[in-house]
Structures are given as structure tokens and as C-alpha cells.
Design a protein that fits this description.
single chain, 314 residues, mainly alpha, 15 helices, globular
Length: 314
């Protein structure tokens, strides 16, 4: 990707992320990211009145390539897309104001991510609890992972918390977020952006391109929150979770324990895990096929003690 195209991309991402973050409660994990994006966008972004034909041609080529596949998106671009989406997710539910609980989830998540097939992302993995009783978990591209108090309430022990986080890490390493973007209206939007960039180069047209990009990010986020990933992606993330848990030393039966508890707590027709994920019964059947004969979770006293101490108020 050319430097000019990257400048346009970063500038647009900076505007969008800053716009979402303004006036909302943002956790420390995102605040620094937003400030950094704004600085990069301001320093590198070309003046709207000085867009050249070369810039436009480069933008067209990039958007055409991206509309065909997301495999060529760089880790840096994935990072900015993920942060933009993450800011929107935080607009739905605020962060849970409990540093001990968030530190615990982050320590556990960071350990699990090191044993994944994608241990490193552009800016690393970040884990955050959202303050809502809704049962849900979301993974934005680049490694920003959200879990709700509701889903943590479905976890009877640390091993089941590890299962939730490992499942979301599985989504990140498989780039399911970017693949979901490919299936949304982003393809048409990017083609429109490319066409407009080829026709006109004025400041207002660049502003329109930015607006289109912003609308696309909103569309992507709505798809992730309201529709969820496909059944095949969820089953794939479960398989990844099993592998990650085994590598770290957690009993993958913890995933079944969590799903069994969740099954009893899900409420029909509520916009939470039930509306965005396959039925827990189906997932359990698929998981048990993989596990075969396995032993129930017998949590170590030390693990259970730190689990209860960290999440006692969550």
C-alpha cells in the first residue's frame, strides 16, 4: 500500500474514532489509542485541498483490492478498524468500573492469547468487562475483546472464564471480524468510495468519503452486535478455544460448564447471546464430539480463590 493511501486511511480512521469517543465514557485501554490515532491522522493526513490524482488512483486500487478480500489488510489497518468498532461497542454498554475484576480478566486473557495461533497483534490484546447483565461477548478485529458481567455470571470457576476468553481469541486469530465485514455492505460502500475518488478530488468529496467510511463502520458494528457470526465461525472458535485451553493447562470441559449454566439463564427474544450465537445445546454437542471421553473440571483451590476474589461483585 502506498504512503498516500495509508495517510487517507489513517486520517479517516482518526476522524471516526475521535467522533465516537467524544462525550462518551472511554476506558484507559482505548483513551490512549484514540489520542494516538488523532495524532497520526493529524500529522500524516493530507490537506483536503491538496489531493492529487495519484492519491485518488491509489485509493481506488486499494478499495478495489479490499472489496475483493480482507486477507491483504495489514495488522495496522486491522488495529484501526478494530478500535473504531470497539468504540461503538462501548457506546452500547459502558466499561465495568472495577479495576480488580478487569485486571484479573486481562491477566487471564493475556496468558491465553500467548498460547493462541496469533499471539501478537499490532497493539496487543486488550480485555474489558462491560457493565451489563446481558449475556454476551464480542471480539473486535485486532484483539479488543469485550465480555459482559452477564456472561461472567455464567462462569462457575476460572476455567470457564478462560473458556469464554479463549473462544473470543479464537475469533480474533481466525479474523472472523474482518470476514464479517466482507459480508456486510462494506463491499458496495468501498466501491462507491473508489468511484467517487476517481471522479472528483475536492475537499467536499473527501468529506463525503469520510462520511461513507463512518457509515460503513457503523453498519459493520450493527452487524456484529445484532446478527453475530455464522454457526460455522462459532464452532470454529470453540475448537480454537479447546486447543488454547489445553496448551495453557485448563480443562476444556470448562467451556461445556459455562454453556450449561448459560442455557439455564438465557431469556428468549432478548438481544443478547441467544440472538447472536448458536443454541448452547448445539455447541455442547459439537464440543463433546471433539472432547470425547473427558473428565469434569476439578478446579484447583488457588484458581477458585482468585476467581472468587476478583469477580465477587461482577
Amino acid at each position: 500500500m502506498s504512503r498516500n493511501t495509508r495517510r487517507l486511511f489513517l486520517k479517516t480512521a482518526a476522524r471516526w474514532t475521535a467522533a465516537i469517543g467524544a462525550g462518551s465514557l472511554m476506558p484507559a485501554v482505548l483513551t490512549g489509542c484514540i489520542e494516538q490515532v488523532a495524532k497520526v491522522g493529524g500529522a500524516l493526513g493530507a490537506s483536503t485541498g491538496l489531493i492529487t490524482q495519484q492519491n485518488a488512483d491509489s485509493l481506488v486500487k486499494t478499495t478495489q483490492a479490499v472489496s475483493r478480500t480482507f486477507e491483504d489488510i495489514t495488522p495496522e489497518q486491522e488495529y484501526y478498524i478494530g478500535r473504531s468498532i470497539g468504540a461503538v461497542i462501548l457506546g452500547k454498554y459502558p466499561p465495568y468500573n472495577d479495576s480488580a475484576a478487569n485486571q484479573y480478566v486481562n491477566r487471564l486473557g493475556q496468558t491465553l492469547s500467548r498460547f493462541s495461533d496469533m499471539p501478537d497483534t499490532f497493539a496487543g490484546y486488550h480485555f474489558l468487562i462491560q457493565d451489563t447483565p446481558e449475556i454476551n461477548a464480542l471480539a473486535a478485529p485486532g484483539g479488543l475483546i469485550f465480555v459482559t458481567r452477564g456472561i461472567l455470571g455464567c462462569c462457575p470457576h476460572e476455567t470457564s472464564v478462560a473458556a469464554v476468553l479463549a473462544h473470543e481469541i479464537g475469533h480474533v486469530q481466525a479474523k472472523h471480524g474482518l470476514r464479517a465485514i466482507q459480508k456486510s455492505r462494506i463491499t458496495d460502500a468501498l466501491l462507491i468510495i473508489g468511484a467517487e475518488g476517481a471522479k472528483t478530488l475536492g475537499g467536499q468529496n473527501l468529506a463525503n468519503l469520510t462520511q461513507l467510511f463512518e457509515g460503513t463502520i457503523t453498519d459493520i458494528t450493527q452487524t456484529m452486535i445484532n446478527s453475530g457470526y455464522s454457526r460455522s465461525y462459532e464452532f470454529e472458535a470453540d475448537q480454537s478455544a479447546i486447543k488454547i485451553m489445553r496448551r495453557v493447562g485448563y480443562n476444556p470441559e470448562g467451556l461445556v460448564d459455562m454453556l450449561q449454566t448459560m442455557k439455564s439463564k438465557l431469556v428468549a427474544n432478548r438481544p443478547d447471546f441467544a440472538s447472536t450465537h448458536p443454541n448452547p445445546v448445539d455447541r455442547i454437542a459439537e464440543i463433546e464430539t471433539t472432547l470425547g471421553s473427558s473428565t469434569p473440571v476439578k478446579e484447583a483451590k488457588e484458581r477458585q480463590a482468585r476467581f472468587q476474589a476478583a469477580l465477587k461483585t461482577a
